[in-house]
Amino acid sequence: MLYEAEGYDATHWPDSYWRASCAALPPCPALEGAAQTDVVIIGAGYAGLNAALELVERHGADVVVLEAGQPGWGASGRNGGFCCLGGARLSERTIARRFGAGAVAEWEGYERAAIARVEDNLARHGIDAQVTEPGELLLADSPRAWARMQAAPLPEGARLLDRAALRAEGLNTGAYLGGLYTPDGFGLHPYAYVTGLARAALAAGVRVHGESRATGLHPLAQGWRVETARGTVTARQVLVATNGYSDERLLPWLKARILPAISNIMVTRPLTQAELDAQGWTRQLMAYDKRMLLHYFRLLPDNRLMFGARGGLSFRPGPVVDFARRARAEFELIFPAFAKAETDYGWNGLVCLTSSLAPYIGPVPGEEGLFCALGWHGNGVAAASEGGRRAARALMGESTAPPAITRRVPPRFWLPRKWALGAGMAMAGVIEGRMRTHGQAGAPPA
Question: Most buried by CB count within 10 Å: which residue of 4, 9, 104, 285?
Fold first, then answer.
């Protein structure tokens, strides 16, 4: 594990607004004794549960899902609820150079299919995930970012909004010079979504076991045996879908191929209409900025403001508190009219990066019947939902079901990962600090 044990303690639920505002899923029982199945899925998040549903619905497979805590404990229950385009950090030019011109359109199709997948899951399974208005807003925090945004070709349906337009549309802040609105995606309640998926999987006959951390993974003549503290399950195939919470001791091949990074979220008390009007932020649109250590935020249906920030290198109490203070200060710079709105909830979790800058959906080389689906780069609501479905199809023999960029095996990071994270964060702080010092960041709100 890259971080301290506190970050992986599945017996401790985070102080999350999502769980506090949603009916909890009844606990799934722990795996007891010996069991057999067709496919074992490790991880009951968006990818794992979508894979289970695909295997049962389309292929009639018998499926067991193992979860270290309970469904929704990990990143799928503690993220920002952005169902949007994304999942990779590769430019179109890089995708075309590495995988061919057709791979660009293939990936763009995947991104849109991922949003449609979430919409279909919500509709088919009757999941009330408190969906908010469609679209997202990318905000420019410096003149350079705004100039690049204006110079780039506009995606279909997109609009550029300068400061006056942002203010006129109820999207005013104290920090940003302009923004790019795109109509794709929507906000949702992530815990309601993942527990809704778990209910659908249970109803379809999937055996979902909570409190069942996989502690051993052993090849057999015809399949695999997965061990937990209180049981074992044998299967022809195994899918590891644990993303940033992956245990590299369980799957040594994965070691140093992923980079878990800490993301922090706070949620305010409900804002008054007077506060919303004073700030000029009255929309429930998903929004994020262009910083290296980005901020992401949206107004929730009950008028609380959810605000996320990437950064931090430790789950120890002291550093966690220190980073929460820093994030709160940045929140007040962006939303000065909300400075007196207390933080009611605060928590953190892990996003998962890869050295290939793309998810990996495919087999573990040299290990027959063992697959992975992970590395959603902070955009797992949609990308992991579709990724789990494509992974299931790959298990069933459709090796090209995942997009080309996700079939490339990520190499290992060649630098110590925590050192690389720390250096990147330090550099980001230096660059952004200089921008503020030289007056290049956004001016106060008009």
Answer: 285
